[in-house]
Amino acid sequence: MLDAMPEGHTIHRAARLQGRALAGRRVAVASPQGRFAEGAAVLDGRRLERIDAVGKHLLYRFEGAPALHVHLGLFGRFLLHEGEAPPTASPQTRLALAADAEGEGQARRPAVTLRCSGPTACELLPEPEEAALRARLGPDPLDPTAGPEGFAAALARRRAGIGQALLDQRAVAGVGNVYRAEALFLTGLHPDQPAPTLRDDDVEALWATLRELLRAGERQGRIVTIAAADRTRPPSRLRRDEALYVYRREGLPCRRCGTVVRAWPLGGRRIFACPGCQPPRPTG
Ligand SMILES: [Zn+2]
To answer: What is the pTM of this model?
Structure first.
């Protein structure tokens, strides 16, 4: 499917769910496909302390070892299986984590298998390289300690339109093609408006909107941007084509003003916007 690159909410949700299943346990680590065999040997049998998400990157913290860095990219996929008898690993499985069942009664934890195939990155990341990775990334709206200041500073340094800047992970980490279109619609911003010309209140509204949308996506495991006032059913019951305002709705009437939604290439992907709700603004 086109535009299937996971956005930050998917990665943060994966960190939460995988962490719930595996954190605190001794984990068998393997690379059935072989390309991560050396790294897997370093981690095999160690205790997994926790899993952190930073933008679209995952960092698995094992006791006494460098972090395991995974970036799914466009084709990477996870399979998390709880209980005995997981499905057989495919020959494409780059990374396999497994923990045996343990504990009794309420404290019992089932056997867990986590597999990852097709990631862009699956590597050990020593501390200096992790610091370098973090330094390359803009603030992550799902990081509770991040605020709009870093985002504003990054936008002020870019010449590109705001729609292009939102896909630049150095400006903001974790935003992908769906959220950029929807957040610009919800804040009434034209995607081609040069990022440095955004007013402070626009930057703050955009940051708040991104944070709210990504948080909802993390909870729900899907992207629903339609506000309560614009929908007739609870978010969980919306069909895919009812859940968004403008993304992939080119040629259709805007849900708010009826103007035909437009699409054009911007930053290597297609942007979708409503000319009525997101008019170009005079910039001074
Ligand atoms: Zn509109």
So the answer is: 0.92
